[in-house]
Amino acid sequence: MMMLTHFHAFPFFVWPFGLVFGLIGFLIFALPMMEIIHKAGYSRIWILIWFVPLVNLIFLWIFAFSRWPSQNKA
């Protein structure tokens, strides 16, 4: 019985679809989050923290309950 555990066991046309779906997922979720983070007064580069498992959950709580720089300006 052949197990499909190696990359060469998958057809060559499968990986571009994964790349396209990953890019679409990034555009759907990351771009609006970058705008929300920017409007809150933080740098857009903070979106990279969302790609680190568990750390993103910690920073979500910190982000939600901390005082935002945009609130300090008002």
User: What general form does the structure show?
Assistant: elongated
How many DSSP helices? 3
Determine the mean pLDDT.
Answer: 79
Uncertain runs with pLDDT below 50, 5 residues or more? none
User: How many β-strand stretches?
Assistant: 0
The Cα radius of gyration reads: 19 Å
Task: Outline the biggest β-sheet.
Answer: none
- Beta-strand proportion: under 5%
Short summary of the structure?
By secondary structure, the chain is mainly α. 57% of the residues lie in helices and 0% in strands. The chain is elongated, with a radius of gyration of 19 Å.
What report would you give on this structure?
The chain has 74 residues and is mostly helical. The protein has a domain at 32-67. The protein has three helices and no strands. It has helices at 14-39, 55-65, 69-73. The longest helix is centred in the middle third of the chain and has 26 residues, at 14-39. The radius of gyration is 19 Å and the shape is elongated.
Which tags fit this structure?
74 residues; 57% helix; 0% strand
How are the secondary structure elements laid out?
Blueprint: H1 14-39, H2 55-65, H3 69-73
